[in-house]
Amino acid sequence: MSAKIHPPTYIVVAELFFRSKIRAVAEAAGVTVQFVRSFDDLRAALSLNSVPAQIIVDLNDRSLGALELLPGLAQAGHRLLGFVSHVDLTTANAAREAGCTVLPRSKFVENLPAILAGEF
Fold first, then answer.
1. pTM of the complete model
2. Which of 27, 38, 64, 97 yields a CA-CA distance of 20 to 30 A from 16?
3. Does residue 4 form part of some domain?
């Protein structure tokens, strides 16, 4: 039986505490992820890889400018998943319109092992 091949996973999260939480779940699940702090770093990482990636974004971090960049990433065939505060409906709706799957932060954390394994 062949092993399931996972697309590269890039996580655009600047918050150090949350990054360490995601890193711990990824290590426990045996999944390799790459953290990037900005979309400039993401673009550089994507340029080194020719296959579509899974990109996870903190939509509440306004410094990232995610809403402006999501449409281009979706058009390029990347799988986009964003997490957001459950009360921030404006951001959630805008991200969905841009081609991003959006989860409340609590659901993201709850489903993180499956998300990182590409099963969500």
1. 0.90
2. 97
3. no
